[in-house]
Design goal:
- The strands form 7 sheets. Strands 1, 2, 3, 4, 5, 6, 7, 8 and 9 form a 9-stranded mixed beta sheet that branches.
- This protein is α+β, with helices and mostly antiparallel strands.
């Protein structure tokens, strides 16, 4: 049975049992900062299990994309060395939210495995929590599994919990005995052994308790079910394969790897490890990049970078010295593109990002090799054979070299590595990462959860209304619910109906006023907390109370400016894709009254022609005064129409589509103009890089655009006045040409001046061991002139080693050159490095020429002395 058939049979079975088919959520969990990646099927239902979210169904089934790489849920180091570990994998699951419980979950799983998948009942085992007599009774008496094949295990293996507190419960794993040929052959081999004989297939979690802060367990009013079975694992069993990598899920990927790299699979263990690593990691990279992730040096981006570079290293281990990983995207798409269309859509962008990262890695390898050689050189001076942990960590962290690669490089040089020191440095970094992650984990405080439970009909009406009459639902100050706020007090107000837009999707929150018969209140910001519109307020006069009838009014001019900028971002996004290509994706935005900021994926700076074309396109669409239409429709319908969506965003089943007729279609919850003509005009004021592979454009519209142009016009008038010319550009061009001509004259005179006494300088050279050694200090000669003089001397003096020094603005400049005929014996870069280190400076370069600096005039004198000392010794 093919993996696609297994996936379909699983989902169809549970649909037939009344389960809602729910799409896989993204690998990047937007609403759960505690996770780097989605690592289980239950992640998208976490808030449902916690009672914070209601769904229109009580049973669900999914095939969930999962990633276990980075953080505490990481299998990356095991990939390739075992039959089952993966970074990316698919998790089949069925869920009950207070509907059915243990009996039904067990019966469903047993029927699917034995009746539909036709797995032999006599080979099936189960494990249960040691105290779960209910599950034991169902398995033994109702399913008829012999008692000896029901294994009771402790809390570590068979008790699941979401966190230190909250929902938890026992679990039961269904296990298949694959036979002795899969086992370790040990006489005590049994369930729980690390070998593959007793293979865990399906984990059934029975969420029936709530654990409080004291560790006490109480029964949940509505116990639930969470199950998970790895598609790769069940496919291997169904296809009779010894490893997941031998299944049809990996076959086309491995075939392409073998063909491209000219290697054979299942012939050599080391080769197989590398092939498996590459096959696994290309799946992970393909899916992560399809969700908008870019390789970087922190967080999720760092994990992606590590995955790509680890695969790149294994390509190199297979004897292939060119980039190749990007070529394996196609077989991933061939196998999984029908199930996950996003990897098809992002095909070219994915290849391009992987290709760029591979090229960077090869360059890093070259640099790392230089660093490694310096480490070896320093060790030889100390007669040590141990590479310090800090140096290993630098190679690992800065240059992206995997630890095992560094170990092999050390072994090749007959050196040992300080693994303990490396682990200490690594743990420090992980601790910093954990601290940073904890700082980002923003939970919803209890007061807002209480309000959320009470709030059944709080409505945002600001798409159509800038002002309205409404009523105070609740007042909060310093995390406490109050019944009133008085003059001078600040707090938070929640309204039954509100015209104020709450900050989200990059658009800032509204400001304005709230009036009652007894109070005047300034709204200084509007935020969304736990799904509620929270108005940050300051009472200007009077007293406001819970239940008061009020008049709420948005600052209309500010809102209109925001709307102009938001609609302009949609035009900009579409224009960027038209000019640069479909690989462009939004990577962040800020929509405020005075400007817009748009971050997008692209790999190089935009040139003037591209910026001009983008700006022209946006302004053309503004002049066309295209209507901006908003429609509410199902997510599937919107995506099928080709609407642009941010993959990492979580969308409801019914979404809001903002269309700019014939040009742009995006999912968006923001406020917009009725037509593009309302934007007025659009000007790009800056473009630059914010991270690897991420560019940023800032722009202005409306009155801010007019102010921008007016400022430029005033600057031009000032320049015209200074130059006393009605044609300032021509005047500046003429001035620049004259300055360039004068500069050339100055350079010529400087060169003539410093070289006219060259013969006198050469006379100062000393004969040391058959070479001419010359060290001279000059005053006020800049770096360029010093280098010219050095080259001129080297033409006349050889074999020679020449050090020229000059003091400029209190700092010492050093140029060291070696004539070509002795550069194999005297390396300029290494010599200057020793000299500058001796005088507290820095320097280095190539074999024939090097450049450096030292702190002051006194250190120049010392540098000259050290120069002669080194040559005399050598």
């Amino acid at each position: 049975m093919e993996s696609s058939e297994i996936r379909k049979l699983f989902l169809d079975y549970f649909i037939s049992k009344g389960h809602e088919l729910v799409k896989s959520s993204p690998l990047i969990p937007k609403e759960d900062p505690t996770l780097l990646f989605t690592n289980a099927g239950m992640v998208q239902f976490k808030r449902v299990f916690l009672g914070e979210e209601q769904r229109p169904y009580s049973r669900a089934t999914t095939c969930q994309k999962c990633m276990r790489a980075g953080g505490k849920h990481s299998d990356i180091e095991n990939v390739g060395f075992t039959a089952r570990h993966h970074t990316f994998f698919e998790m089949l699951g069925n869920f009950s939210f207070g509907d059915y419980f243990k009996r039904e979950a067990i019966f469903f799983a047993w029927e699917l495995l034995t009746t539909h998948f036709k797995l032999p009942k006599e080979k099936m085992w189960v494990s249960i929590y040691k105290d779960d007599n209910e599950a034991a009774e169902i398995w033994e008496r109702e399913i008829s599994i012999p008692k000896e094949r029901i294994v009771r295990l402790g809390e570590k293996d068979n008790f699941w919990q979401m966190g230190d507190t909250g929902p938890c419960g026992p679990c039961s794993e269904i296990i298949i005995d694959q036979g002795e040929e899969f086992g370790c052959k040990k006489p005590d081999c049994s369930v729980g052994c690390d070998c593959d004989r007793f293979l865990e297939l399906w984990n059934l979690v029975f969420m029936q308790f709530n654990r409080d802060e004291e560790g006490k367990l109480t029964l949940l009013p509505k116990p639930s079910i969470d199950t998970g079975m790895g598609l790769e694992r069940i496919t291997a069993v169904m296809q009779g394969k010894k490893t997941n990598f031998d299944t049809d899920l990996f076959e086309p990927i491995i075939a392409e790897i073998c063909s491209t790299l000219n290697v054979k699979y299942n012939k050599d263990r080391k080769t197989d490890i590398s092939i498996k690593v590459i096959a696994d990691h290309i799946r992970a990279a393909t899916f992560l990049i399809a969700e908008g992730l870019i390789p970087s040096n922190e967080g999720r981006g760092y994990v992606l970078r590590r995955i790509i570079r680890r695969a790149g290293r294994h390509i190199k281990l297979l004897g292939f010295d060119r980039i190749a990983l990007y070529r394996f995207v196609e077989p991933v798409i061939y196998k999984l593109g029908g199930v996950y269309p996003e990897i098809v859509t992002e095909r070219e962008r994915t290849k391009k990002i992987i290709k760029i990262e591979e090229e960077k890695f090869l360059k890093s390898l070259e640099k790392a090799q230089e660093i490694f050689e310096n480490i070896i050189e320093n060790l030889t001076k100390t007669d040590s054979k141990l590479i310090p942990g800090e140096e290993i960590f630098r190679l690992y962290d800065t240059f992206g070299l995997p630890f095992d690669m560094i170990r092999e490089m050390a072994q090749d040089s007959e050196l040992e590595i300080d693994e303990i020191g490396f682990q200490k440095a690594l743990n420090k970094q992980r601790e910093r990462a954990r601290t940073a992650q904890k700082a980002e984990e923003v939970g919803i405080s209890e007061v807002y959860k209480i309000l959320k439970q009470k709030a059944e009909s709080l409505i945002f009406k600001g798409y159509n209304d800038y002002e309205l009459e409404t009523q105070i639902f609740a007042i909060v100050k310093n995390g406490e619910i109050l019944n009133k706020l008085e003059t001078g007090e600040e707090g938070e107000i929640f309204l039954f109906e509100t015209p104020f837009y709450a900050e989200s999707g990059g658009q800032v929150g509204d400001v304005g006023i709230i009036l009652s018969n007894s109070a005047k209140i300034e709204v200084v910001d509007t935020k969304k907390i736990g799904g509620l519109h929270c108005h940050k307020v300051r009472v200007l006069e009077g007293t406001i109370k819970e239940g008061d009838r009020v008049f709420a009014k948005v600052n209309i001019e500010r809102r209109k400016s925001i709307m102009r900028n938001h609609t302009a971002t949609h035009l900009l996004h579409a224009a960027l894709r038209a000019v640069l290509g479909e690989h462009v994706k939004q990577a962040g935005s800020l929509v405020s009254p005075d400007r817009l900021r748009f971050d997008f994926t692209h790999f190089e700076s935009l040139n003037d022609e591209e910026l001009k074309e983008i700006e022209n396109i946006v302004n053309e669409k503004i002049l066309e005064n295209l209507p901006v239409k908003v429609e509410n429709k199902s997510l599937d319908e919107a995506l099928n129409e080709g609407v642009t969506a941010l993959f990492e965003d979580k969308y409801e089943d019914i979404v809001r589509v903002v269309k700019i007729l014939g040009f742009s279609k995006e999912l968006c919850g923001g406020t917009h103009c009725n037509s593009t003509g309302e934007i007025g005009s659009f000007f790009i004021i800056s473009e630059g890089s914010v991270a690897s592979g991420i560019r940023r454009i800032e722009a202005v519209t409306g009155m801010e655009a007019y102010k921008y142009v007016e400022n430029l016009r005033e600057q031009l008038k000032t320049i015209s006045s200074i130059l006393k010319s009605a044609q300032p550009i021509k005047a500046v061009e003429k001035l620049v040409a004259e300055l360039k001509e004068k500069q050339n004259e100055i350079e010529y005179l400087k060169e003539k001046f410093i070289t006219q006494n060259i013969d006198d300088i050469i006379k100062q050279a000393k004969d040391i061991k058959g070479i001419k050694a010359l060290a001279v200090k000059l005053e006020g000669v800049d770096t360029k002139s010093l280098r010219i003089l050095s080259d001129k001397i080297r033409e006349k003096l050889h074999p020679a080693v020449i050090l020229l020094a000059s003091k400029v603005d209190g700092q010492g400049i050093l140029i060291l050159s070696v004539s070509k005929d002795i550069s194999n014996k005297y390396d300029a870069g290494k010599l200057l490095k020793i000299i500058t280190q001796a005088v507290g400076g820095k320097g280095g370069g190539k074999a024939e020429s090097a450049q450096g600096g030292c702190p002051d005039g006194e250190s120049i004198e010392k540098a000259l002395e050290v120069f002669y000392e080194i040559l005399s010794v050598n």
